[in-house]
Write a structure and sequence with these properties.
The protein has about 290 residues and is an alpha/beta fold. Helices cover about 45% and strands about 15% of the residues. The protein folds into two domains: about 70 residues; about 220 residues, Rossmann fold (3-Layer(aba) Sandwich).
């Protein structure tokens, strides 16, 4: 029993240490690049500790879901044949414990908002290549369109998943199949957290990488797909925070969130559902930053 308790404590403390280290690193980079942001720092040490603990819980919670996914091979499909809304494909982020299971809670919130055609994908292998992941998304979209009879889908990508979605849309020709795309905490202009890992996908997501330079060459141009970029000013994985902003998109800045908590937030899900259901003429005009 002591061994089990010790292992549990070790896992919990490891997650807390991870979040604390990257939170302080992100905090330093964000304040250095924008000294005025210091006014938005947590007002007290206890409040900041609570933020770290809550984000550590969310990461641990999602990682446990990822482990559970190892024993499942099917991709999540919530098909409602009586629904008229476009199918939604959710694309997870980077890491061996990030899978379609990441979206379980978020999917519940979307269904509560009336968006019932909900699908996920498991990108493989875990430390692969954004371009290969985008090909998997392309194939998944084709299967979804065949099974639902719709002509287009909406994409929601978390972290790396948002970059995968953009590559599919802008490079692989997915714009004709994607009506709207939402990215959540995605490093459109790279993140310094990607400097530490040595995997190919991490190199692709570093600031100034050749991959991002090629992808962003068309940033802000009218592709036919409408974008929304949701990001947190205190994201401990994507920093500096403004690297998540995307030209030509509706950029939504969150407060009081880290990297994982937005996809476990009912409020964030409601904000995204509003964008997905918004009439076309209105969504075209909303390209300025807003807060949630």
């Amino acid at each position: 029993m002591r061994i089990i308790i010790g292992l549990i404590l070790l896992v919990v403390l490891t997650h807390v240490a991870f979040v604390l280290f990257f939170s302080l690193l992100a905090l330093t980079v964000n304040v250095y690049r924008n000294p005025g942001r210091i006014r938005n720092l947590p007002k007290s040490i206890p409040r900041y500790i609570v933020y770290v603990l809550v984000e550590a819980y969310f990461i641990l919670f999602q990682n446990l879901r990822g482990i559970a996914r190892w024993w499942r091979t099917e991709e999540k499909s919530e098909l409602n044949l009586h629904s008229t809304n476009r199918p939604i494909l959710c694309i997870h982020g980077y890491g061996p414990l990030q899978t379609g299971e990441t979206w379980r809670t978020f999917g519940i919130f979307l269904r509560e908002a009336g968006l019932t055609n909900f699908f996920t994908i498991d990108l493989k292998p875990p430390f692969g290549d954004v371009t290969k992941y985008a090909e998997q998304v392309r194939d998944r979209v084709e299967r979804i369109l065949r099974s639902t009879g719709h002509e287009k889908v909406d994409l929601i990508g978390h972290s790396m998943g948002g970059i995968v979605a953009r590559y599919y849309i802008e490079v692989l020709g997915g714009t004709s199949k994607v009506e709207r795309c939402v990215t959540i905490g995605s490093p459109h202009h790279g993140t310094y957290a990607a400097i530490l890992p040595v995997t190919k996908v991490a190199r692709q997501l570093r600031p100034g990488s050749d991959f991002l330079a090629e992808l962003n060459a068309s940033e802000g141009k009218n592709t036919g797909t409408r974008y929304c970029s949701v990001y947190s000013e205190w994201d401990e994985v994507i920093f500096p925070a403004e690297n998540s902003r995307l030209r030509g998109a509706e950029n939504v800045r969150l407060s009081g969130h880290g990297h994982m908590s937005p996809i476990l937030s009912r409020r964030v899900a409601e904000k995204i559902s509003q964008f997905l259901k918004m009439p076309a003429d209105k969504s075209e005009k909303q390209t300025t930053s807003s807060a949630a």
